[in-house]
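User: Hi! I have a protein structure encoded as tokens and I'd like to know what sequence might fold into it. I'm fairly new to this, so please keep things simple.
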């Protein structure tokens, strides 16, 4: 079983093994990564975290868990430009620095092992966490509580005053959607660091995880264009055209398709 197959096998479990699946994603990019060994070593981190946790009901332990992680050195990666190591879980565990989503995945696995009912929230631009039964969200980068007004301010800081907070911004994220978001993050980070082949691996995974958008097909089409694969580029542009509901984008896609050479079929 290759890493991609192992990832989907993790998703097929009941409940899905989200953290292990994300480790197999890292193994796709580095054959030396051994997810099962990392899972065994993770027990030590679990012990370190639980050592100074307060004696509270499980619903009240979300913020103490994140603060304990912060005490142990886990924090948002502020290196500029951001590198793929900020989203690859094996590297985040080693460096204790990462994107909010990567830190959130570590927190979710610790919470699972400590019986804290924590879930992920695919908030735009900044992955968040929630403990079931509470009326606030949690920032995985330190554990700050976020109430609706805080979420509104966070959204406007990232996207400007025209984007309003919506109910679906606060919904619990399914494991498959979390992994798709992580794949998109890695796609962008690899692209920003000029590793187009690694970005293509991530772009393919985004599509394989299902319910891909026109933007996802466009992202892979751009990678194929850079790698001089016109047939594959055409395939993705045609799918983006079918999915797009923006008339201006559809016009541009049609024009771009018109500039590609005809499909070449080798028999």
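Assistant: Happy to help. Inverse folding works backwards from shape to sequence: for each of the 267 positions I chose a residue that suits the local structure. Here it is:
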């Amino acid at each position: 079983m290759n890493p991609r197959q192992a990832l989907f096998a993790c998703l097929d479990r009941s409940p899905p093994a989200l953290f292990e699946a994300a480790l197999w994603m890292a193994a796709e990019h580095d054959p030396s990564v051994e997810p099962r060994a990392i899972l065994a070593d993770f027990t030590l981190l679990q012990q370190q975290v639980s050592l100074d946790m307060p004696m509270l009901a499980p619903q009240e332990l979300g913020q103490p868990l994140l603060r304990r992680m912060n005490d142990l050195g886990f924090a948002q990666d502020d290196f500029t430009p951001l590198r793929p190591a900020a989203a690859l879980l094996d590297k985040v565990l080693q460096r204790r620095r990462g994107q909010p989503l990567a830190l959130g995945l570590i927190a979710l696995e610790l919470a699972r092992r400590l019986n804290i009912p924590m879930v992920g929230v695919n908030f735009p631009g900044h992955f968040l966490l929630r403990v079931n039964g509470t009326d606030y969200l949690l920032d995985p980068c330190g554990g700050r509580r976020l109430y609706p007004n805080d979420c509104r301010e966070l959204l406007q800081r990232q996207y400007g005053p025209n984007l309003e907070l919506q109910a679906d911004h606060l919904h619990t994220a399914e494991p498959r959607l979390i992994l798709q978001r992580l794949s998109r993050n890695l796609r962008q980070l690899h692209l920003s660091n000029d590793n187009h082949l690694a970005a293509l691996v991530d772009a393919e995974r985004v599509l394989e995880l299902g319910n891909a958008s026109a933007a996802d097909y466009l992202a892979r089409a751009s990678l194929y264009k850079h790698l001089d694969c016109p047939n594959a580029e055409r395939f993705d542009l045609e799918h983006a055209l079918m999915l797009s509901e923006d008339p201006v984008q559809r016009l541009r896609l049609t024009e771009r398709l018109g500039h590609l050479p005809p499909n070449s079929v080798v028999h």
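A useful reference point when you look it over: The longest helix spans residues 175-192. Feel free to ask if any position seems puzzling.
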